[in-house]
Amino acid sequence: MRRNSIAPLALVIIGVSQLWACASWKNREKGAAVGAAAGGVIGGVIGNQTGSTARGAIIGAVVGGAAGAVIGHQMDQQAKELQQNIPGATVTRVGEGIAVTFASGLLYDFDSDVVRPTAAQNLRALAQSLGKYPNTDILIVGHTDATGPDSYNQGLSERRARSAQNFLVGEGVAPGRLRSAGRGETEPIASNDDEAGQSQNRRVEVAIYANAQARKP
User: Fold this and answer.
1) Is-above-0.85 flag for pTM?
2) How many angstroms from the chain centroid is the CA of residue 186?
3) Is residue 25 part of a domain?
4) Which of 13, 192, 205, 211 could lock onto 54 through a cystine, CB 3.0 to 4.6 A?
5) Could you tell me the residue range of the domain that residue 111 belongs to?
6) Average pLDDT, rounded, for the chain
7) What letter does residue 176 receive in the DSSP assignment?
């Protein structure tokens, strides 16, 4: 992160956290719905600062204190299980949440948003894990490389994220826990100047973070 971006990011987190606190106070009876929406909104805002919408959603759902320690312990256990059960995916603990990254080639054929039959087991394993730990919300974010028109890449990333979302719903994950978004080529993690970097940029990220009920004091 560039040094001069730290202060703006801090202000964004503080401001969004204050908005979330107000929303939580006024909508206690709508906890789950508010939590899912807030996680996505915060992810988008912080993602613009950090370069990762998925990580932004996790950062925005931070709890802290004793509750945060309990959630963190659960996330440690879930992350270990995901690493064992989803070969080929990258599982990373981020703050009090988990980021799971799938290479697009692992889930989809070239230029397709249809989940490959050979990849279905990976998403089934993820769905089983989400069912075992129900006190979380999930944001699925699609990404592409910079080859081709920006608008096409944006659309493809959205379709792929939505396809993964629909697959998880079909495996029994409650729709209210899931959101999807596409970022096209706007959040690269490697150079787009060669195939190796482009391959890394073609990915689907899954952010797992505490839902509104788990974040209640």
Assistant:
1) no
2) 15
3) no
4) 205
5) 64-215
6) 81
7) G
